[in-house]
């Protein structure tokens, strides 16, 4: 039975604690609000661009931020959706997101690879790693569009599972400089051209987000991108899930221990990255030509 009120439980947390629907929703809300507060994710005067894909994580995030800030005149938000062009997957997500935002009166801006780069992801993945192409292009569009639409922060639906995977992936590849850019709040204040990113669902597990999205009728479509199954990330995800089954709390331990060393990592790598303007597109980058332009050149010359 629910540990708080003795009703029928809907979920067991990693600690073993069981909660009913009402107590779980209250627990989830409380924990996300605490993450925002303790990690100073949102300030007065912020305009938040919420990156939405139409999946459970991003719509849960949008629903919560909308509920938290709907009566707060000092913070505004809008949704930003990038349509990569993945037939049979993203098309459905776009329609669901349009309906979701219309019902809540949330402004929604949609951009597509087709419109911006002249091709759909499906048409350029042959012989390439889809996520490497997609990740670079999406990151670029989210940053430039959020910035050009006047946002001061970009909120993403990354959850605790995503972060634990990223930490391990960087560790396995000896990529600590990339890890220094993880955490619930990333980026540097007033760095020209770059929007700071926030992850309010940082301490919520994928299972918790899925349960919340289902219980609150946010979505009951938990399909994943068809390209995800072959990715390195997915292999790490499956390994972590196996470990979590055997040793509950593993994912929390990965993230908690990482949070302890994150300030030292940020200190070590701070200011190491010189910011230049890409010689091709003028966007901020640490190299002469930004990653987006490198990827686009490879695609266009093949
Ligand atoms: Fe893009 Fe890979 Fe994410 Fe699919 S799983 S949307 S291909 S980054
Ligand atoms: Zn209860
Ligand atoms: Zn460029």
Description:
The protein has 302 residues and is an alpha/beta fold. The chain folds into two domains: 21-271, Rossmann fold (3-Layer(aba) Sandwich), CATH 3.40.50.620; 272-302, no CATH class. It is 47% helix and 12% strand. The chain has eleven helices and ten strands. The strands form three sheets. A six-stranded mixed sheet has the order 5-4-3-6-8-7, sandwiched between helices. Strands 1-2 form a two-stranded antiparallel sheet. Strands 9-10 form a two-stranded antiparallel sheet. The chain is globular and about 65 Å long.
Mean pLDDT: 93
Q: How does the helix and strand content classify structurally?
A: alpha/beta
CATH topology of the largest domain: Rossmann fold
Chemical compounds bound to the protein: iron/sulfur cluster, zinc ion
Helix residue percentage: 40-55%
- Count structural domains: 2
CATH architecture of the largest domain: 3-Layer(aba) Sandwich
- Percentage of residues in strands: 5-15%
CATH top level of the largest domain is Alpha Beta
Q: Total number of helical segments?
A: 11
Largest sheet: 6 strands, mixed
Round the Cα radius of gyration to an integer and report it. 19 Å
Identify low-pLDDT runs. Answer: none
Q: Which of globular, elongated, flat, extended, rod-shaped describes the shape?
A: globular
Task: Provide a brief overview of the structure.
With 302 residues, the protein is an alpha/beta fold.
Structural descriptors:
Rossmann fold; binds iron/sulfur cluster; 11 helices; alpha/beta; six-stranded mixed sheet; binds zinc ion; 12% strand
Topology readout:
Blueprint: E1 11-12, E2 18-19, H1 21-38, E3 47-52, H2 56-69, E4 76-83, H3 90-104, E5 108-112, H4 113-117, H5 130-148, E6 153-155, H6 160-172, H7 176-179, E7 185-186, E8 196-198, H8 206-215, H9 232-246, H10 250-269, E9 276-277, E10 284-285, H11 291-300
Parallel strand pairs: 3-4, 3-6, 4-5, 6-8
Antiparallel strand pairs: 1-2, 7-8, 9-10
The structure holds iron/sulfur cluster and zinc ion (2 copies).
The site of iron/sulfur cluster (SF4) has 8 residues, from α5.
